[in-house]
Write a sequence for this structure.
């Protein structure tokens, strides 16, 4: 009897380990959450245009672009993110060409954000973020002006502006380490008057939508 009990004590843990190895769901649940992750994203943003119709309310100075980001988990729910994105003025998608007439803009966004993830590791997980950063932008504008002496003159300048945002998003698990998702952010950032006689900028609200892939290390 003692031999049988000894064999059972050895065999049961071995059998449990073999079952866990054979079952990918057990293996997935047993794997601890990764501390680091990185990803790529693509999207666009537009500034608020109160005078526009409903279809173009957020398409003033439409900017499209791509970016990279990295994350670090601080706790089960909290995380921080660093990102860099490049955006350019583009009226070919979801924009009113008249709102960007005579203007070209290229911007690099450097951002830091803190967030809370609702259900880390779940099949579907949502999150909220708040962040800040800087925008390095080059803008040129010409061809239209209220001042006749400035008509046809192109104005160009490079600037650095602060920015801030709040946002939320959600993603789904594609593999054990890869997730795909979408996010929506509302920024407070610099906006140039298209019909102005100078390149003075004022803070304005902009809405941004993005799609992304995120890989856990």
């Amino acid at each position: 009897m003692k031999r049988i009990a000894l064999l059972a004590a050895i065999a049961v843990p071995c059998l449990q380990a073999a079952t866990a190895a054979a079952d990918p769901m057990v293996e997935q649940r047993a794997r601890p959450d990764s501390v680091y992750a990185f990803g790529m994203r693509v999207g666009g943003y537009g500034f608020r245009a109160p005078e526009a119709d409903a279809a173009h309310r957020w398409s003033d100075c439409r900017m499209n672009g791509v970016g990279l980001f990295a994350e670090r988990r601080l706790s089960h729910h909290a995380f921080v993110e660093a990102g860099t994105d490049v955006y350019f003025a583009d009226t070919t998608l979801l924009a009113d060409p008249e709102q960007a007439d005579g203007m070209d803009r290229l911007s690099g966004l450097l951002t830091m954000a803190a967030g809370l993830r609702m259900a880390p590791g779940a099949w579907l997980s949502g999150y909220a973020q708040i962040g800040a950063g800087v925008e390095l932008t080059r803008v040129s504008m010409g061809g239209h002006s209220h001042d006749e002496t400035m008509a046809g003159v192109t104005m160009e300048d490079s600037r650095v502006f602060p920015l801030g945002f709040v946002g939320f998003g959600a993603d789904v698990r594609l593999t054990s380490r890869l997730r795909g998702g979408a996010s929506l952010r509302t920024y407070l950032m610099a906006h140039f008057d298209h019909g102005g006689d100078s390149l003075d900028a004022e803070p304005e609200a902009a809405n941004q939508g993005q799609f992304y892939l995120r890989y856990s290390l």
About this structure: The chain has two domains: 1-31, 35-216. Residues 35-216 form a domain with the Porin fold (CATH 2.40.160.20). The two ends are 49 Å apart (CA to CA). The longest strand covers residues 155-173.
